[in-house]
Amino acid sequence: xxxxxxxxxxxxxxxxxxxxxxxxxxxxxxxxxxxxxxxxxxxxxxxxxxxxxxxxxxxxxxxxxxxxxxxxxxxxxxxxxxxxxxxxxxxxxxxxxxxxxxxxxxxxxxxxxxxxxxxxxxxxxxxxxxxxxxxxxxxxxxxxxxxxxxxxxxxxxxxxxxxxxxxxxxxxxxxxxxxxxxxxxxxxxxxxxxxxxxxxxxxxxxxxxxxxxxxxxxxxxxxx
Length: 224
Ligand SMILES: [Zn+2]
What we know:
Blueprint: E1 12-17, H1 22-37, E2 42-47, H2 54-66, E3 71-76, H3 88-101, E4 106-110, H4 117-129, E5 135-138, E6 152-156, H5 158-171, H6 183-196, E7 201-206
The structure holds zinc ion.
């Protein structure tokens, strides 16, 4: 099992998402686990769409709840939902802007195999700006049926998995009308990922590159 070593000064993570609620769905339990264990962790979050709408308000309240005790800095942009390929330059500029203002030990982002074009497009932008950073690609259950075989797991305590489902319901009222947006779906996937890593519940992530530091010296990738 590989740990996340918080460097002196508290450490930092970055969160990238195409839409409000992606981060909470894909990594909410992991964020709760990580931030609870490391008060003061710096969290820089960038969401490409939803700015200026009720969804931005939801995202601010939700991430504050999912990152308790963190030094959270969230930016929500106004790129149109479902149109990322047509706004590629703005998205790239935003990702590079995030890179310029933070040097995270760990980065959470969509993964390149995601069937949603906005998620997939953002995933492809990430390594162009974050070249020496450990990226964990979160998964989002959806109509397209793109769940694959992730290789990295964060086990979740049962109370954390329950808290994730409850916070998703509480903080995103705009999404409750979606037929898949319910406690059963969130806990169901977490239960399956838990089976795969010998835990009750878990969140899983896709990793395309992993740099080890087995000598235990200077931390390069932030995960060993
Ligand atoms: Zn999304």
